[in-house]
Predict the 3D structure of the following.
Amino acid sequence: MRTYVQKLGKSLMGPLSIIVASGLLLGIVSILQNPTLVGEGFANATIIQGIVGGVQTVVGTMFGLLPILFAISVAIGMSHEDKEIAAFSVVIAFILFHVVINYLLKLKGIDADNTTVEHLMENGMSQIRAVETSNMYETMLGTFTYRMGVFGGIITGLWTAMIHNRYHTKQLPTAFSFFSGNRFVPIMIILTIPIVSIISYFVWPFFNTAINALGGLIGNSGVIGTFLYGFSERLLIPTGLHHVLNQLIRFTPIGGTATIDGETISGALTIFNAELAAPVKDMEIMRNATRFLTQGTHPFMVFGLPAACYAMYKTSYLTQRPKIKGMLIAAAATSFVTGITEPIEFAFIFISPILWVFHAFMSGLSFMIMNLLGVAVGNAGGGMIDLAIFGILQGTYTRWYLVVALGLVYAVVYYFVFKYVIERFDIKTPGRSKDDVLEDADEEVAGSELGSLIMQALGGFDNIKEIDNCISRLRLVLEDTSIINEQRLKKTGSMGIVRIDEKNLQVVYGGKVENAARSLKNEMKSIKRNQ
């Protein structure tokens, strides 16, 4: 189950790159509307307003497509092979899923016209109750249905993956052989997805109530809620389950619900981007959404962890410093610029529970302090790019200067705490080991040679069953994880490994993970062709 949830968490990351890129574009054009930076004449110029309006339309459309993007991403991520067939099938599943729910709602006499707030109030419903009832429904791809958001995408994605994995190799009798294999998957989707729709029709109202209640609990918990989120998110880093927590906060009612320009929007990141595009910003909504976003990560990603790298360098053995200097600088720069922190975190979380818990505590504290100070810096990256675009260049209303002030304090605290703990308990962080691995750790290995080295370190061709990757980790299913050679993996640029169980392994490469995954896949394909 843990392996399954981890794979699901990775699948949920699929739409994030699109949404983050859309958010960055929205952040950049919003700068063009800031008269303090560009002047009144430029900000109000017709061509600028046209550009801004066009970008807002595109980005708004992308966020409207989030449910089907999640459906496709989950179906692809959870399918074992022939993933393109799963992607094709899930589009059918998603549309039919909501069409059947629409049909059931019509049978009950529920449609878009009689669920508006005005109509409900005219029929004796209180305003609050009318708003709550109206918010239960939406029009998705032209179909009136329950407002399920990304949950509808996740449900159809999981169902499609299950059907695909079970039937994509199914062979039918000769008379029906044309419909065998991959062609049989869409047929089974058409036959089975109405069952899922009927079950969802009856179950979703109760599930929706529970989700909204959980979101309300988190929202009403104030700074305690933000602390617990930040603390839990970093504590889950070694397991990979932080991806699941993040996506639930960013894209579902657990991260909050707000009404912007008459439209109900759920999820902290979705609310932030909608508010960023609004002509007049509601700062209460903005600050409530951003308390779960990057403003809580900047102090330790931009300032704290780079300082921890410096502490690891200063506590390393003099003879090892030239060999780890490049690695630590690269890891610190990656965290500073992009907010990808795992290359640093995996250097200490498995060998020092004290530093791991300290880091998680400082993360929770950062989220809590940013909330208390009313900072309003959003998006989902966490590095200097986000701080500049969504903080500094947006103006003083974001209170970005408080992020920098706290960040400088974090840099000092991280440096001295890491330095003290490493020396006091003789923690074997990079450069404090006498082994020979570091002799070659800084050598660049390229192309097919890299793939070959990784394959050998993982126990050879026959030991590797599945290869995948997320933003910083190579995710593998092996025949036996006990036979891998960790020292050889370090020579390929690995920052550490996570053994999930006897079959599942994760190798941390940071920003180089795409190259590592591609090289390994190419090497495996080359051997398979020659067999």
